[in-house]
Inverse folding.
């Protein structure tokens, strides 16, 4: 037995004044006597009787009352050892758990299993619940209230995103370790050996829900975008995948701003993957591809894309090379989305760079440097960000290039481009080489301060339309211009669960975002004037209204798609046969009794101050009764 509040023992000092009151108390009763001679001794020693301590029943009751209250305030308790079932329940809330199975979804079946498990826990059982959506989310601490645990389980909702089972298991292991041990139950639709190895030496109990199902999914919606595609020049490509054991028939609808553009009846063989092309888009808007089929997962039967209005790019060339200007003018005459303006270096003024989307500086570096997307061709030495080697490289051979960079796409044989001369250009810390010779980098690209910059160390202009008909130089320039062309100042298409971050040139004050299921969120901008929104777990179109610091209202709508073959496949991976996997050798498909959960021995603390308070109340009532009887 022990106590929690030792300072409360000071309340016991209240017994001191009570003892003093009884010790000093003297009753004075009037009496008639014939002579004071017998009382002379009392008169000579009047305080003799007062010094005698004669406690009565009321005194002892008062001492008992103070003692009980003091012990109660000290919060005495005793400990005993109990066996508590402690479990962590991890629920897969990914899109595949929304697949139909029986009379409900896989998630509903998993929740029913979990409720049975909680019912079979001992009275001291503790439950911690984790939801594994796009991010793991702890729904509770360790609860020993079965009703509360079952209410949380019943209220769990599935998502329209990919799952995060690995992160959720890591969180569950951490919580179990902090709690001194617990058994982990994973409610999902597939057995995963990687999670077993992750949890070693802990044992995971997989609770598999669902059955093999028939599903047809939209796995991609492609609309070519970029500098060289206007809205009316874009075609739509929709990719479908069959995850079925039999042929499936469906109708595919293509809508633009909810108006039907095309409709196609299709039939896919088991496991077939097919990409369907559709005609050119008539205008901008929100494109929706929708499958009309009653398969077992409806979430992947729709996907969205945003078609932007064609944007005319203002291009500035600063060069004294007239053939280069003529060649770029020829390109812009074909690419209708680019408007071209040429300025000689001797005539250049900083105002020329205003209201321009991107610029090409040929053998010239502006002073001051411009804050815009720029291409520098053979720039002179500068003390700014461009570092040029002193000596020119004659007949350099291209040794390597970054094949994954957008500026070098379609250039599989760039090493065949014969260069007469070049300058070695060293990239700054925020950029990386994209073309290199055996001596030094010949071109680099990077982003700084929100702007894209490319520097080329050879005279790109003479390779645009060479007599040899080698189009590598032309393709390189077109790729660079497309990469430098300004994109949408805000996100247009996200994957469900991905954060929406709005941080274009405006500084925002707040936003109001409406989800596809008509949930409305009011979001305040952060200190940098950016809008960050995480509730993107619904497939469809999000309406975004934002206000800048001047009170101006803008629209920044976007769409979110699932487009996940992993979630659409709906394949059930059952538990391995008993004994084939050491970590699961003794596992049962479903828990039947509380004994299957983890038996954790722990000391339970029980305070008994409540009983002392009740006893003190009884003593107080008895004391009052005794006192009233003495008066009568």
């Amino acid at each position: 037995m022990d106590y929690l509040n030792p300072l409360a023992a000071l309340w016991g000092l209240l017994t001191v004044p009570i003892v003093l009151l009884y010790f000093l108390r003297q009753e004075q009763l009037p009496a008639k006597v014939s002579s004071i001679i017998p009382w002379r001794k009392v008169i000579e020693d009047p305080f003799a009787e007062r010094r005698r301590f004669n406690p009565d029943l009321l005194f002892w009751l008062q001492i008992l009352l103070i003692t009980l209250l003091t012990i109660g305030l000290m919060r005495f308790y005793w400990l005993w050892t109990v066996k508590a079932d402690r479990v962590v329940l991890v629920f897969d809330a990914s899109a595949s758990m929304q697949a139909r199975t029986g009379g409900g979804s896989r998630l509903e079946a998993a929740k029913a299993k979990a409720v049975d498990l909680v019912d079979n826990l001992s009275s001291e059982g503790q439950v911690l619940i984790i939801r594994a959506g796009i991010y793991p989310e702890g729904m509770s601490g360790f609860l020993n209230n079965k009703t509360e645990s079952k209410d949380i389980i019943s209220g769990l909702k599935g998502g329209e995103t990919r799952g995060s089972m690995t992160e959720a298991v890591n969180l569950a292991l951490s919580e179990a370790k902090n709690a001194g041990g617990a058994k982990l139950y994973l409610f999902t639709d597939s057995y995963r050996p990687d999670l077993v190895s992750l949890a070693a030496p802990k044992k995971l109990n997989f609770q598999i829900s669902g059955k093999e199902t028939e599903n047809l999914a939209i796995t991609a919606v492609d609309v070519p975008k970029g500098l060289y595609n206007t809205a009316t020049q874009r075609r739509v490509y929709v990719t479908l995948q069959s995850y079925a054991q039999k042929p499936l028939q469906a109708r595919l609808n293509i809508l633009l701003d909810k108006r039907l553009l095309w409709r196609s009846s299709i039939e896919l063989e088991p496991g077939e993957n097919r990409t369907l092309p559709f005609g050119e888009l008539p205008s901008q808007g929100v494109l929706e591809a929708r499958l009309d089929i009653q398969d077992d997962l409806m979430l992947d039967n729709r996907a969205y894309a945003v078609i932007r209005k064609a944007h005319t790019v203002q291009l500035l060339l600063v060069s004294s090379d007239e053939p280069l200007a003529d060649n770029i003018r020829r390109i812009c005459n074909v690419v209708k989305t680019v408007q071209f303006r040429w300025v000689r270096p001797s005539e250049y003024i900083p105002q020329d760079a205003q209201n321009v989307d991107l610029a090409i500086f040929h053998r010239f570096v502006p002073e001051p440097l411009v804050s815009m997307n720029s291409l520098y061709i053979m720039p002179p030495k500068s003390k700014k960000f461009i570092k040029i080697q002193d000596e020119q490289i004659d007949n350099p051979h291209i040794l390597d290039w970054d094949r994954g960079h957008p500026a070098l796409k379609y250039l599989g044989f760039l090493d065949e481009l014969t260069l007469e001369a070049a300058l070695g250009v060293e990239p700054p810390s925020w950029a990386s080489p994209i073309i290199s010779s055996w001596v030094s980098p010949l071109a680099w690209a990077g982003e700084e301060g929100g702007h894209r910059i490319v520097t080329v160390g050879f005279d790109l202009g003479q390779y645009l339309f060479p007599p040899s008909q080698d189009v590598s130089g032309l393709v390189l320039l077109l790729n660079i211009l497309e990469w430098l062309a300004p994109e949408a100042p805000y996100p247009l298409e996200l994957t469900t669960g991905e954060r929406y971050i709005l941080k274009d040139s405006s500084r925002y004050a707040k936003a109001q975002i409406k989800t596809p299921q008509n949930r409305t969120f009011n979001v305040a901008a952060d200190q940098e004037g950016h809008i960050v929104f995480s509730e993107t777990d619904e497939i469809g179109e999000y309406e975004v209204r934002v206000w800048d610091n001047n009170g101006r209202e803008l629209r920044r709508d976007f769409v979110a798609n699932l487009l996940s073959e992993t979630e659409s496949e709906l394949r059930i991976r059952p538990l391995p046969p008993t004994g084939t996997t050491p970590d699961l050798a003794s596992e049962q498909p479903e828990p039947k009794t509380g004994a299957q959960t983890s038996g954790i021995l722990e000391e339970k603390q029980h305070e008994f101050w409540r009983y002392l308070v009740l006893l003190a109340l009884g003593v107080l009532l008895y004391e009052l009764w005794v006192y009233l009887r003495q008066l009568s």
